[in-house]
Design brief:
Strands 3, 4, 5, 6, 7 and 8 form a six-stranded antiparallel β-sheet that branches. The two termini are about 30 Å apart. This protein has helices at about 40-50, 60-65, 75-90; strands spanning about 1-5, 10-15, 30-35, 40, 95-105, 115-130, 135-145, 150-160. It has a domain at about 20-40 and about 75-165: Roll (Thiol Ester Dehydrase, Chain A), CATH 3.10.129. It has three helices and eight strands, in the order E-E-E-E-H-H-H-E-E-E-E. Helices cover about 15% and strands about 35% of the residues. By secondary structure, the protein is of the alpha+beta class.
Length: about 180
């Protein structure tokens, strides 16, 4: 969306950035390759393990990790899930207001510190909401790949998403008292 304001014969054009998909924008079979990959660091893994109070030492004790069948520490699974879900937001749930469920979650290969993960989603289903006329329900399947193209995670997710023009999806960006403009040199 582009809006133009006029002030003292000066034109200011505001071009809004990507606002995400609304219910009407989803098509069954559409695939979204989410644009941001994320390299998982040892610090990410340690902090997330501590934050979630996971006491399995395979995630934070190098000696235990090295003595495991993997030969090194594993990234804690909820971190992989959280990053994958976060990667999908830009394309799927930017305008959602509630997750309704996650199903068929599978951790299909281990993730290690230093791995870069990427996610993509396919739209499986969509329907109008019978209780909320300004929203719909969408179901997607997301899979996450490591830098070698190996799938490490897959899950289905169902969520409520606003329709275009829904009041709940209106931008909350404040109107500046003084518009941003090019300065004369």
């Amino acid at each position: 969306m582009t809006t133009t304001h006029r002030k003292d014969d000066e034109h200011v054009t505001i071009t809004q950035g990507w606002q995400g998909r609304f219910f009407e924008d989803f098509g069954i079979g559409d695939v979204y390759q989410h644009p941001l990959g994320r390299t998982i660091t040892e610090t990410d893994n340690t902090w997330f393990t501590l934050l979630t109070m996971n006491t399995n030492q395979a995630h934070f004790n190098r000696q235990v990790g090295e003595s495991s069948e993997f030969g090194r520490m594993l990234v804690v699974s909820p971190l992989t899930i959280a990053v994958a879900m976060g990667q999908s937001v830009i394309d799927t749930t930017q305008n959602a207001f509630a997750n309704l469920g996650m199903d068929d979650l599978r951790l299909t290969a281990p993730v290690f510190a230093g791995d870069t993960i990427w996610s993509e989603s396919i739209v499986l289903d969509k329907r109008e909401s019978s209780s909320r006329p300004t929203a719909g329900i969408v179901t997607i399947r997301t899979r996450t790949l490591n830098q070698d193209g190996v799938e490490v995670l897959t899950f289905r997710r169902t969520f409520y998403v606003h329709k275009q023009g829904a009041a709940g999806a209106a931008s909350q960006f404040p109107r500046a008292a003084t518009p941003l403009a090019l300065e004369q040199v």
